[in-house]
Amino acid sequence: MNNNAYLLINPLKESSLDLANKIKKLTSRKVVLTPNIAAAQLCLQQELFDAIFLTLTNDQDIQSLIYQLPSSIPIVVVSPIKELASSAYEYENIVDFLLQPSCEARVWRALNRAQYTPILSNTRIEDSYAFIRSETQILKFNFNEIEYFSAFGSYSKVHTKNNVHIVNESIEGLMNILPSGVFRRVHHAYLINIYKITAVDSRSFFVYDRDIPIGKSYQKSINFLFNVKALFV
């Protein structure tokens, strides 16, 4: 985990506060409470989270809710309805099910599962294109259309020549699955298509009129990749 925070999506205030207090006691980490998916998405655009605790009730569309959340963040489903457990486990990034109310030992088990269960990406990569989820849709991007990716909290923005799309993948997740021969991380918040670079100086790459900063920790690998070491003296 990245020592960030936990996000609780829970319209039931009393049970939400009880779970939040248990998580704070067990981890000493920040816990952000939101009443619905729309409010959660705003938080996810501004902050990174280690796990999401999502409360479900019978009248909710589970698939729609899950598909609106980042696919790279582990989700623990929380519900007072035991029958929802089997349907919740159908999705790759759901790592546990908490039946409300839950004791501290059971919450601790869920936190550990969120930390250690591998998450499979919902993004599909082919030879020259990628299928990436954007809310409830899956969008197809040809590699030669993508100029760069930028971090957007727990999501990412895909920048093409004429459009910007928000997708349900973090920069870290994209870096791990996209081909390194095409896309390279040049900053903690940017992943660039190396074939779209039009200029470079000691601080930035340029994609036409767009300035992509170079992070200090990435300069060494970038110098080797582009054989422009003299520019970075």
UniProtKB/TrEMBL annotation:
Residues 132-228 form the HTH LytTR-type domain. Pfam families: LytTR (PF04397). One of its GO terms (molecular function) is DNA binding. The keyword Signal does not apply. Keywords: DNA-binding. InterPro entries: LytR-like, LytTR_DNA-bd_dom. It comes from the Bacteria. This is LytTR family transcriptional regulator DNA-binding domain-containing protein.
